[in-house]
Amino acid sequence: MARPLRIEYPGAWYHVTCRGNERRNIFWDEGDWGKFLEILADNVKLYGIELHCYVLMQNHFHLLLMTPEAGLKKFMQRLNTTYTVYFNRRHRRVGQDEYLVELSRYIHLNPVRIRRYSQLETEEKRKLLKGYPWSSYGGFTRATKRQAFMSYSVILDLAGGGDSYRGRRRYEHFVMDGVKKDMNITFWKGVRGQAVLGSDDFVDWIYERFLSRRKADRRELGGIKELETGPRSVEEIGSEVSREFGIEEEGLYRPRGISPARSLLIELCRVHLTRGMSLAEIGRRLGGISASAISQNKKRLEEAVARDAHLGEIFLKVSNQLRSKSSQ
Fold this sequence. Notes:
The chain is mainly alpha-helical and 328 residues long.
């Protein structure tokens, strides 16, 4: 969400507008709108804000308010943080949903991914895919090709159009768009752990919710071991980063500016340690930084890697070295 204007003084009027990241929806249904109003009311009272107008849209909101005391920054920080925490907890399943839709496409594209057809033109592959008889794909795009033992509505709903003519066309375009991509690369990018399929956030949630506090079945140990593979402490990661950059490890823990090495250390800790400790605890061990600062560092590092590919190579190198050492 957007950062509020920071010119503050008693009696100031503000038109505040906040949008979801990349213009994504921040309200999915009436439950979200209702909860936001509860949080808004609580914060208006807490900070003595005068709220004169508001409107909530699907991917943003507008507020017209006056601050009898100079407190806009704290008001907006608490409002946005409280609602974001609620939204992420309530819609945690979205990380899984995205992978279910992608997985359905990956499965349906298998007939045209074999070596025999790899050199065909895109349109030839699409024609072959539509005519392949031993796949459930036809039932997702043509109601007349449905099979009684199949379930279609869940995937079609997750794809965004539902089980309707429009939804089936939308799913068809989605799958056919994958014909011109290498789905073997794009689909598995970012997937971690053979036991759990999903994004980092989703895998972390599964681990914390279902795996960290129970004794695993022997048949599951291989997958869980893969999830657990990695360093166990901030110091272990710090030692590897300092060695790679040729600097003293002690300097990595001083929160005075963000050097490439320290930024890399923070992100490596976030990636490798969050299944065993909270972001707050990681932040304390990194010199007393907040959980939000750790999350913000991720974005900054991604931007830095986009400018300097070598930095990304160092990140992967150190990450692999850490996994390799921990598995020995």
